[in-house]
C-alpha cells in the first residue's frame, strides 16, 4: 500500500551504515512494518529485525516489495549485487546508493539506463538522528522521488543536494568519513588525559562531554568556529600553549593530507572496480 510520507523501504545489505539509518528512522517514527532488509549474514539480519521490528527477506524479495531501495553493500560487491537485482526492479522503485565512490553512470549500466538513482553519502550519526548526507540525483529521478530521498535521509539528519556529482568524493572526505576523525581525536585526548594522571573513566567522561559541548555550541552559536576557538584562548594562557603546539606540528596540513587521501581513495575505489 502506497504512503507518500513513508514509502515501502528496502535495504540491500544490512551492515553498519544500514543499521544506523534504520535505527534513526524507526526512532523518528518511520513505521517498522514499512522497512525490510536483506543481508547474507543471516544472524546479523535477524538481530537487526529483533532490534527495530523491521521485516526481512532475500535481496530479490525485498526489492520487489519496495518503493524505495537503498543499496547498502560494500562498493566491492555493488556490481554483482545490482546486476543480480535488475529483474526485481521492473516496477521502477527509486534506488538510493550509499556506496562510496561508485558513480551514477556505473550504477545506471548495472541497474538499467532509465532507473531513477540517487547517490547518497550518509554517516553513522544517523543512528542518533544527527547524521549529515550529501545527495545527487540522476536525470531520471522525478521531483517526487527527490522529495522521497530527502524525507528519508532528512529524518535522520541534515541533507545537502549536490548538482555536481564528483563533489560526492569531497562529501565523503568531510562527513561520510568525518565521524571517524572526531572519534580518533577523542581517543587521543582520552589517552593524553590518562597519561597526565586522570583515570580512563574520568578522561573519557570529560572528553566526550567536551566534544558534545563544543559541537552543540558551534551548532547554536551565531559566530563561526574560528571565533569560538579564540574565545577559549586567553592571551598568554593555557589554550594558546596547546593551539600553538598543534599549529607548529602542522595539524591543518595533516587534515588537508588526510582528507585528500580519503577523496582520492573514493576515486580510486571506483577505478579499481573497472567503472
Ligand atoms: N560505515 C560508514 O560509516 C559508511 C558507509 N557507507 C557505505 O555504505 C556501504 C555499506 O558500508 P558498511 O555498512 O560500513 O558495510 P558493512 O560491511 O557493515 O555492511 C554491508 C553488509 O552487506 C552484506 N552483504 C555482502 N554481500 C551481500 C549480498 N550479495 N547481498 C546482501 N548483502 C550483502 C555484508 O555481509 P558480510 O559481512 O557477510 O559480507 C554486510 O553485512 C558501503 O558501500 C560504504 O561505502 C557510506 C557512508 C558511511
Ligand atoms: O570507509 C569507508 O569506505 C566508508 C565510506 C564513508 C565512511 N565509511
Automatic annotation (TrEMBL):
It is found in: Cytoplasm. Its main location: cytoplasm. NADPH binds at residue 59. It comes from the Bacteria. It catalyses: L-proline + NADP(+) = (S)-1-pyrroline-5-carboxylate + NADPH + 2 H(+); L-proline + NAD(+) = (S)-1-pyrroline-5-carboxylate + NADH + 2 H(+). Residues 9-101 form the Pyrroline-5-carboxylate reductase catalytic N-terminal domain. Belongs to the pyrroline-5-carboxylate reductase family. This is Pyrroline-5-carboxylate reductase. It comes from Marinimicrobium koreense.
Amino acid at each position: 500500500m502506497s504512503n507518500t510520507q513513508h514509502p515501502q523501504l528496502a535495504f540491500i545489505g544490512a551492515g553498519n551504515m544500514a543499521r544506523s539509518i534504520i535505527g534513526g528512522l524507526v526512532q523518528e517514527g518511520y513505521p517498522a512494518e514499512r522497512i525490510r532488509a536483506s543481508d547474507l549474514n543471516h544472524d546479523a539480519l535477524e538481530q537487526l529485525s529483533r532490534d527495530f521490528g523491521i521485516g526481512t527477506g532475500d535481496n530479490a524479495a525485498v526489492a520487489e516489495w519496495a518503493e524505495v531501495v537503498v543499496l547498502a553493500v560494500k562498493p566491492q560487491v555493488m556490481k554483482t549485487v545490482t546486476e543480480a537485482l535488475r529483474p526485481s526492479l521492473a516496477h521502477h522503485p527509486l534506488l538510493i546508493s550509499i556506496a562510496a565512490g561508485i558513480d551514477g553512470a556505473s550504477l545506471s549500466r548495472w541497474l538499467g539506463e532509465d532507473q531513477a538513482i540517487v547517490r547518497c553519502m550518509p554517516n553513522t550519526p544517523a543512528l542518533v538522528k544527527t547524521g549529515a548526507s550529501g545527495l545527487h540525483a540522476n536525470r531520471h529521478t522525478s521531483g517526487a522521488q527527490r522529495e522521497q530521498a530527502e524525507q528519508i535521509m532528512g529524518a535522520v539528519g541534515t541533507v545537502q543536494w549536490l548538482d555536481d556529482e564528483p563533489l560526492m568524493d569531497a562529501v565523503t572526505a568531510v562527513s561520510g568519513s568525518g565521524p571517524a576523525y572526531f572519534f580518533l581525536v577523542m581517543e587521543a585526548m582520552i589517552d593524553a588525559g590518562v597519561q597526565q594522571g586522570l583515570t580512563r573513566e574520568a578522561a573519557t567522561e570529560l572528553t566526550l562531554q567536551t566534544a558534545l559541548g563544543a559541537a552543540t555550541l558551534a551548532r547554536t552559536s551565531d559566530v563561526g568556529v574560528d571565533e569560538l576557538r579564540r574565545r577559549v584562548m586567553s592571551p598568554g594562557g593555557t589554550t594558546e600553549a596547546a593551539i600553538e603546539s598543534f599549529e607548529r606540528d602542522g595539524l591543518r596540513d595533516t587534515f588537508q593530507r588526510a582528507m585528500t587521501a580519503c577523496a582520492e581513495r573514493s576515486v580510486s575505489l571506483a577505478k579499481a572496480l573497472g567503472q
